[in-house]
Amino acid sequence: MDRIHYIAGMSDEQTISNTTKSAVEKVLRGRLGPAGFSGADIRAEHDSDGDPILLVDVKYVCSDKPISSKLTYGLSTEVRKALSELGETRFPHIRHHFDEQQKIAS
Predict the structure, then answer these.
(1) Which of 2, 63, 67, 98 is most buried, with most CB under 10 Å away?
(2) Superkingdom of the source (predicted)?
(3) What angle do CA 69, 16, 55 make, to 5 degrees?
């Protein structure tokens, strides 16, 4: 079963609620499921300015079908909107980890 993994932090600023994790997972699964979404690791971090962020590492299984880069366009905005509705103010930084053999459609 695909899962979202939470990597625990040390302070309240680094806590991620189950509601927040579920909201991120729902958006990712809805948008990226057809592209082989297999799960994500979400952890609380700080950006280079020291501001709190959510670092989202998205993982995929290899698919025979080339993946369109358009699939990820606007994903951060969609995740931010879902988080904002929950009162979550940390910006989601999303990183995609495709299989080395995965073909990307042009």
Answers:
(1) 67
(2) Bacteria
(3) 35
pLDDT in tens, 63-93: 888 998 888 899 999 999 999 999 999 999 9
How does pLDDT run across 13-47, given as a tens digit for each residue? 578 999 999 999 999 999 999 899 999 999 999 99
CATH number at 78 reads 3.30.70.1350
Q: Quickly count: other Cβ atoms within 10 Å of residue 66's Cβ.
A: 12
Full domain range(s) for residue 45:
3-105
E-assigned strand segments in the chain: 3-6, 37-46, 52-60, 67-68, 91-97, 104-105
CA 16, CA 34: separation in Å to the nearest integer?
A: 27
Q: What's the token pair of residue 39? A: 């799960």
- Is a pLDDT exceeding 80 seen at residue 1? no
Please, are residues 8 and 45 in contact by the beta-carbon 8 Å criterion?
no
